Structures are given as C-alpha cells and as structure tokens.
C-alpha cells in the first residue's frame, strides 16, 4: 500500500526547447516559487520591522527555534521518498526527549549512554513501523498513527502528566547551547544531515531506488529493487533522525513533559510536503524541505513581531501548505497541457 506517490514535475530541457522567455518563466515559477516568496517575505518584514527583523539576534532565534522542526521535516521526508508517510516523527519526539532527561536524572546514566539508548530506540521504532507497513501490509498512515498514539500514551503513563526535572550535565545541554560562529550548533546539525541526505538522494543508487519505489513500487520490484528492504530502511533512518531531534529538544528545554512535542507534528509534515512543491516539484527533496521550513520560520517570526495573535502559527502553516499545493497543481496541469499540445513527430521517408 502507498500513502503518497512521487512524480517529478521539474521541466526538462526538451520541454523548454522552443518556448518563449515568458513561457520558460512560467514553467520555472513552480520550481523556484517558494524560494522567491521566501526572499520577498524577508524583504517585506525587513522594511516593516527594520529594528527587529533584519538582525543577527533574530537570525539566531529563528535558527535555534526551528532546528527541531527542520530535523523532523527531514526525517519525515525519507519515507515520503518511497511513497510512505511517517506520523511518528511528531509523536516519537514526545517520548524521546522525556527519555533523554529521565535516564540521566532518575537512573543516573551517563549522557553519552543516554543519547545512544535514545537513538537506538528511534531506530527500533522505525524498524517496527517498517515491518508493519511492509510485512503486515498496513497502510503507512494508519500504521504510524497507531504506533505514534501508543508511544504517546506510554509517555503520558510514565510522566503521569507531570514534568520530569533534574540536574543535567553541561556537556549534555551543550548539545543545544553551543554556538559556532555565533550561530546555534543545532543549525549545523540540520545542515550536516541535509547535505548527507542530498548526496544520498541525488548521487547514490540508494536515492534513485527510493525515488523509483515512490514513483511505482510494483515496477521498481519488477526491476530487481528490493522494495521491502529499502522501505524498512527508510523508516529506520526516519526514526533515527527523529530521535536525534528529541535529544536536541531535551538539551534545549532541560525538562521533559508529555504535553510538549505534538505541536511539532503539523509544521514538520508541512515542511516536508512543501519540499515536494519546490526545487523539484512533485518529488520530495532535501533543499525543497529546507526551503519549506525556512518560509514557515520567516513568515511566522515576521507576523508574530507585527503583533500576530496566538493562532497565527497554525493558520500560517495551513495557508502556506494550501498555496504550495496550488502551485504544484498548476505545474502539473501546465505540464500536461504542454504535453498534449505538442503533436508527436512523425518521421517521413521520401520515396524516389
């Protein structure tokens, strides 16, 4: 079963051949529409808020606050490459940040051992999701919703609805508080993982096989691709990055509570879905996902500084997703119209 289908819509050189400059611009607009919109938003907010928005302090705040969402969006992107969806990126971070704190404060484990256990737990959760989807043949949306709800219930049971408090070593909190060149180190985690995923998805056979599975799982299997192994591996990678996000969140908050985490689910999924509407429209991709997270971060930061109410963030997330889907739909319709408008070339043989 597949919850998503991957089909790249970026224009090819053959499709652009013979088009006017205006027509080429309209074909490229869906590809780079979101990056252009992001730049326009930065310019607008910088003009409206010259003392607070275009500052290094605001840049640090945005990078620090949205690093967890960016990690979760990259985690969600990996199963999407295979046409599946992983909702546990939002549920899992609840138990991972609680576990990262309680193992140190309640059980006295060293922070390095704690991080290893949390990351291992993320991999095991991903393995469970992969087995449910590929072996039990449960739709990925239903499977991950079920496992996510269970682990969220476990977090509620363990905490009893109370906060998990205790003294944490500075070496652990430094996972979030350290700055490099004046910027939060969490932003460099995102950059490093993004580069790794970009290289894998664009230049290695693994990435091509994942995209092939997402485009047509049955056809990929007939071509010798071990779809079960790749899909399970995608969920394991997603679980690993999601657990890393939980560690970063724990180092940031320094307290654990089951009520924290679920608010990351929607923006993480929105960022990943936005990534499928830009750079390579119709196909989830790393830099598109990063752009999706950036436009959410910039828009929400600017609106909040203008005095936006508490409901602005979910409203902006949903509206941006709808606009992006509209752009992607336009690109798909435009491509289809161009394909049908061009008559097939028929070779003729001159008889003498």
Describe what you observe in this structure.
With 352 residues, the chain is an all-alpha fold. 72% of the residues lie in helices and 1% in strands. It is built from 14 helices and 2 strands; from the N terminus they run H-H-H-H-H-H-H-E-E-H-H-H-H-H-H-H. Strand 1 and strand 2 (183-184) form a beta hairpin.
Concise summary:
This protein is an all-alpha fold and 352 residues long. It contains 14 helices and two strands.
- Uncertain regions spanning at least 5 consecutive residues: 344-352
Query: How many strands in all?
Result: 2
Strand order of the largest sheet: 1-2
Major β-sheet annotation: 2 strands, antiparallel
The gross shape turns out to be: globular
Under CATH, the topology can be stated as ABC transporter involved in vitamin B12 uptake, BtuC
Order of helices and strands: HHHHHHHEEHHHHHHH
- Count helical runs: 14
Topology, pairings included?
Blueprint: H1 13-16, H2 21-48, H3 56-81, H4 88-105, H5 111-134, H6 140-159, H7 170-177, E1 179-180, E2 183-184, H8 185-203, H9 205-215, H10 217-222, H11 227-253, H12 265-275, H13 286-305, H14 312-341
Antiparallel strand pairs: 1-2
Keywords:
ABC transporter involved in vitamin B12 uptake, BtuC; mainly alpha; 1% strand; two-stranded antiparallel sheet; 352 residues; 14 helices
